[in-house]
Amino acid sequence: MDWISMADVEARVNALESLMVEKGLAEHEAVDAVVASFENDMGPVNGAKVVARAWTDPQYREWLLSDATAAIADMGFTGLQTEHMVAVENTAQRHNVVVCTLCSCYPWTLLGIPPAWFKYPQYRARVVKEPRSVLSEFGVTLDDDVKIDVWDSSAEIRYLVIPQRPAGTEGLSVDELIPLISRDSMVGTALVTAPAGA
Amino acid sequence: MMTAPTLDLTGLDELGGAVALPRSNGELIFDAPWQGRLFGLVVHMCQSGRFVWDDFKKHLIDVIDASGVDDVCDPSVYYRQFGEAFTRLVAEKGYVSADLIEERSRVEADRLSHNDHDHDHDHDHGHRH
User: Fold this and answer.
1) In which residue ranges of chain A is CATH 3.90.330.10 found?
2) Nearest-CA distance from A12 to chain B in Å?
3) pTM
4) CA gap A99, A188 in Å, rounded
């Protein structure tokens, strides 16, 4: 066979995208936009379902925090890159953000295709050293007394951030909560906000 | 937050054709993120006028014919052929040489296998700040 082997194809695709961008023939953000237009079929809605259930079902929340792999599998979301999941919960005192400093490990069966910035060397290096500044660049401004934990993904462990349920959403059903929960909020680079009028 | 534009695949896709995109119940299917990134890159470059779809399709048909594998139901097979076709197209267009693609692919492969330990910190978990 003279086409790309299975082992090498991911590297080849990364190489093609970075070369096209360097040559000025493509933009990461434009690829993101195409991806965003179809990723909802397979994307962050799965992770959002997990979070919405944790918000509304205290027993499930406990299970998710103690054994995320099993709790997520219970929702039917199994497979590559969700084998060893850890869920970390944002609170008024603690904010969690996820990075993969070495490459781009990502729980994509829950969150869809990773955005380009997740792979940027700047994000991978800086979020570890100066998470508060990086988060503010994402528009997430945290009080100084909020601790920030940065979780470094690996081939063995992937993290899911359980964002804080915003005030004003107490009366919303699971189905109404799901669309509020963005991909970035489950990586930790965004907060969830209540819909206007909620 | 980026809003998703409607993806117009008119002229890019032919349902049921020899090079039709893998679908399930009408929806595009991918079984790994690289497939989506690759598809996104090819669609973006085509839509921004870097090539016309028929040029790409010609390569895709050639790759599929030469491989003897025309199981377009399996995205991991289909998108490898898709990647090979795109590699041939950009080399043909003179956008980037096959050698440079090979060289960069090796660098990326090392990175993906966590062999590029040129970092200034350990790969610990749960850094506290």
Assistant:
1) 42-187
2) 5
3) 0.62
4) 9
